[in-house]
Amino acid sequence: MHRPTTCRTSPRTTTAPDPNTYISFAFTGDVLTHTPLIEQAQRTAIAKGSTAEYDFTPMFEDVKQFVQSADLAMCHLETPIAPDGEELSAFPFFGVPKEVVTAIANAGFDRCSTASNHTYDRGLDGIDATVNALLENGVDQSGMARTPDEIEPRIVEVKGVRLCFLSYTFSYNGLKLPEGQEWRSAVINPDRILRDAERARQLGSEATIVSMHWGNEKESQANSMQTGIAETLTASGFDRPHRWPPRTCCAADRTSQWRVGDVWAWQRALKFANRRTLASKQPGCSNRHNQTDEAAFGKNQF
Q: CB-based contacts of 72: which residues, under 8 Å, 6+ apart?
């Protein structure tokens, strides 16, 4: 695993990338922490005699080797961290333990996309708590912001290649960000995405990867909104739209990875073609419920 260097937010003169540079990526979908998983993590912590109240680290055990072998690994943290001093919560308004982020870091993820329909479940304090927890554990993110500057495109260097990661969601499940603080996250809007991508190019991005939290649950085909926006982005010359359809299974093509499902969750296992499900090996978690879904692994030449 190659740790990315510090982000850049000021313009930089670009040079052609070394044609012999290869970067391997690992992308996984939603980290979706339902109540039974929180309860299991608490039992695991007690069994280990841990000083932490929860231990989620075994839940990534089956994918850890793949995550750590990549030059850059990214997951999708779908749920906010509960603010300090507040009760935990799950569906429909999530607020999960900060130890979830400890497990994400331990597994070897470099960054997370964080814009989702649950972004605002625990209000502005939940957004702040999530970004703080990630950064305290050395995991970068895109999709949430504590300040207006934090939502803007930033450059990450991996093996000398300048990359930009953007993250957007289809909605906040009917909730609205406060007036004047809409910058706290990012809703899918093709014009806005293209403006952000252009800004990334101005900053020196050699490849831009965008994460889209969208799609119809339990459906295996992209809907017309998805395909229409995807066509708009790819027609613009967008480097690589990357999509997190919630629990859907779609085909991959030359420019898009359409389907990266839940990496962990407690839900009925859905049977889709070309889907592989790996169960985390820990007491009390079965193949049916504690799912570690397929991840996207690839190597790109720059």
A: 1, 2, 4, 23, 24, 25, 26, 110, 111, 156, 158, 163
